[in-house]
Amino acid sequence: MTILITGGSKCGKSRFAESLMADYSGTKIYLATMQPFGEEAHKIIASHRKMRADKGFLTVECQTQLHTISLPPKAAVLLEDIGNLVANEMFGQEEITDCTETVLRGIRHLQNVSPLLILVSNQVCSDGITYGEGTAAYIRTIGNVNRQIAAQADQVYECVYGIPICLKGESV
Fold this sequence. Notes:
Layout: E1 2-7, H1 13-20, E2 28-32, H2 38-52, E3 57-61, E4 76-80, H3 82-91, H4 100-113, E5 117-120, H5 133-152, E6 155-160, E7 163-168
Parallel strand pairs: 1-5, 1-6, 2-3, 2-4, 4-5
Antiparallel strand pairs: 6-7
Helix pairs in contact: 3-5, 4-5
């Protein structure tokens, strides 16, 4: 089963994603994609670690090339988050690259090895602001990746003010 959770900043996406894995009896992997650049990133990482402490997660860090990751058999995976993964893949080279297929290949790999895959992503393309080309390309890529994941996901949720709204599939 693949579940996509989107929403704005600090809207409860991570908390909801973790709650969906609470009753999973097997290995639970928290797949962290954030590259800790700067003090704010370290604060966010510490906050997320504290939030999932004592919830039975094994944290695995993988900032790029998800298709190469090796995970325990039948482990449930919570990937946090698509926006970081896209940024890492897109801006990790000397030139800005279209990383859509690389990201989707990694997602397909995770779907093949995990009975439960929960993907957390950011709500994009709804603010109406005009951005510079690099940022606009990044936003377009996240939007494209989110659309393709949503099309194949079993369930899709949008979190609004801490309330998960089911957009696709049977609500939990």
